[in-house]
Amino acid sequence: MIDYKKIIRSESLRHRILQLLRFVPDKAMLRLQYRIKTGRRLHLDNPRRYSEKLQWYKLYYRNEQMSLCADKWEVRKYVAEKGLAHILNECYGVWDRAEEFDWDAMPERFVIKDTLGAGGKYMIFVYDKATVDRSACVSQMRSWTEMSYQKKHAGREWVYENGKHRIIAEKLLIRDKNGDLPDYKFFCFDGRVYCSYKMINYTQCHENGVLGFFDRDFRLMKATRTDYAPMTVQPEKPEHYDEMVKMAEILAEGFPHVRVDFYNINGTILFGEMTFFTASGYMLFDPDEFDYTLGRQFVLPGRTVGLH
After folding, report:
1. CA-closest candidate to residue 297, choices 134, 187, 176
2. What is the reported pLDDT for 308?
3. Could you give the 3-state DSSP secondary structure of residue 146?
4. What CA–CA distance (Å, rounded) separates 115 from 78?
5. DSSP 96
6. Cβ distance 165 to 144 under 8 Å?
7. CA 132 to CA 127: how far, in whole Å?
8. Cis geometry, peptide bond prior to residue 25 (ω within 30 degrees of 0)
9. Statement: residue 9 has pLDDT above 90
10. Which is more confidently placed, 9 or 283?
11. Where are the alpha helices (DSSP H) in 115-154?
12. pLDDT for 88-98, tens place per residue?
């Protein structure tokens, strides 16, 4: 049984702390967090690592479409405009307030999300509407919408700042025999896929996750993130993999860098999300050289003057 009250208390404390830190200038905050989370000094004048360039990306690049694509409701319009409406998961509605959530209109099983939630933490999986604790769900949803006052994101990811936290309900996807949702995350640079990664054994418990990076042709690379166990066996190439690559590049067009995620369930491709700052740029790689490898793919646009 998920303890929603504990989750709400934890998030409430986290956001109170962030409110106290919101006056710290962005550059100083990123330098501090980068040092704490990677153990390294952050180089912004001449960034070479992927993780460093993501911090530069946060500070100096602005494209308002990025804010739209980071919103789980608004991005649906973007995907449809790109001619890919057929890969959108079924949506049951979007609401501004938890008290407005229409339980009667929901099917037996569904998933509820915060439209600006990141990292997979702002989700409620409803497996049986008849038995779910609606009061606890409403409390958790209310904790999401009340975050709208927050002007500074924890990692200073500006795409989430000043946005409106709303509640969205979608079709609950069927997990595989391992309890996972098979998803593929494509790293796109200047509109072209360079590599992707896939995780297994992580949906129920991220600590058990196994991660593998793959080149453009889905060959397992000798690289992983240190917060996951490494994938050591080449998995079977998923059905319609090349179609996912093409669609990732359609959606990534015009962005210096974005990660485009898809679910691939028995050959049926569904859009997941678009992420501009993977792990907020605080991941560690094994080998460490892979941080530089990704960094070489990431050509930073001309620096914008006058920001921060």
Report:
1. 187
2. 36
3. helix
4. 15
5. S
6. yes
7. 8
8. no
9. no
10. 283
11. 134-145
12. 999 999 999 99
